[in-house]
Amino acid sequence: MELVESQPLLEWLANNYKCFGATLEIITDKSQEGSQFVRGFGGIGGILRYKVDFQSLQADEPLDDVDLDDY
Question: Which residues form the eRF1 domain (predicted)?
Answer without folding.
Answer: 10-52
